[in-house]
Amino acid sequence: MATISAGSAPPKLEKKPVKFSNLLLGAGLNMFEVTTLGQPLEVVKTTMAANRTISFGGALSQVWGRGGVKGYYQGLIPWAWIEASTKGAVLLFVASEAEYYAKSFGASDFVGGISGGMAGGVAQAYATMGFCTCMKTVEITKHKIAAQGVKPPGTFETFMEIWRKEGIRGINRGVNAVAIRQTTNWGSRFGLSRLAETGIRRVSGKEDGQKLGSLEKILASGLGGGLSAWNQPIEVIRVEMQSKTEDPNRPKNLTVGKTLKYIYSNNGIRGLYRGVAPRIGLGVWQTICMVALGDMAKEAVEKLTGEKVTAKH
User: Fold this and answer.
1) How remote is the C-alpha of 190 from its chain's centroid?
2) Are 156 and 205 in contact (CB under 8 A)?
3) For the chain, how big is the Rg over CA atoms in Å?
4) Is the peptide bond before 248 cis (omega within 30 degrees of 0)?
């Protein structure tokens, strides 16, 4: 039976200073995520959520028909890039700070991870994601206008049209649904990833403060990201609230509650889970980028700048 000496106590939790390099790191990781697999998975997921009768294969064909490979990157420039370059910095900064304060009050890694993720998700939604997410969804769903024989307006023309008609509320339509999605997204992703890390530590005998290897971190993040797709109904609600779909039966001035009732009455419980397969893939990829690669990149930056890594956020 292994014994733990007095000198093998867990490392003391220390508050790290806020650094500009961490903000740049968060933005860079999110730009990498969205430009690689992120946007194609986002487009397929949104297409299925907005067209709740088509299959995964049908969504792939529909997206390809909108421009081949370019169809999978619809909405990437400028909206997804604007969103990625800002929300990544917000997430990494707010989540790290919130996780630290939660742990300083005695929270476990699991509870600290959930707290950090939820705080980071809410900050993302209201600080930067509202109008970007709305405009991405408009870009992806406005092909329905073209199907009616009308040439759809350009990106910025669409933005200005919404601004003139509805102002700030119009371009932030569905922001409350985005906030609910983000707080449950990142609360789940960080929390479940930290829980998976704890399990991996127990299995591998690293419960005495040893760091996990890169592959172990990626495995933990993949599990956390995939399992976090449980909240797909709020994502389908968000897409419907922001969609350019014209349906005379759809209620005006949609709220989260009205949209839930509308989707359920038309498509049942399965409609609320449309797009869950690409969403699982997206969740895995985003969490690997922002949790596993985020942790590893922060440690690498600290080593390069000559700072000792004293605590794990």
Assistant:
1) 11
2) no
3) 21
4) no
Condensed to tens digits (0 to 9), the pLDDT of residues 163-216 reads 777 776 766 677 787 788 878 877 888 788 888 888 888 888 887 667 888 888
Q: How confident is the model over 264-307, as pLDDT tens digits? A: 999 999 999 999 999 999 989 988 887 788 778 877 777 776 65
Q: SS3 for 312?
A: coil
**Separation between Cα atoms, residue 120 and residue 96, nearest integer Å:** 8
Q: How far apart, in whole angstroms, are the C-alpha atoms of residue 240 and residue 244?
A: 8
Amino acid at 15: K
In eight-state DSSP terms, residue 179 is H
> Which tens digit of pLDDT belongs to each residue from 59-91?
999 999 888 999 899 888 887 888 888 877 787
Alpha-carbon 184 to chain mean position: 10
CA dihedral 232, 59, 47, 34 (to 10 degrees): 80
Question: Do 152 and 143 form a contact (C-beta atoms < 8 A)?
Answer: yes
Give CA–CA dist 298/114, Å, rounded.
Answer: 19
The whole-angstrom separation of Cα 287 and Cα 303 is 23
Torsion over CA: 247, 250, 254, 255 (sign): negative
| H helix and E strand count, the chain | 14, 0
- Within a 10 A sphere around the Cβ of 198, how many other Cβ atoms? 16
Q: How many residues does the chain have?
A: 313
Residue in the structure block whose two tokens are 């220390």: 14
User: d(Cα 199, Cα 195) in Å, to the nearest integer?
Assistant: 6
CB-hemisphere CA count at 13 Å for 235? 27
DSSP characters over 212-233 = PPHHHHHHHHHHHHHHGGGGHH
Assess contact for 244 and 141: CB atoms under 8 A. Answer: yes
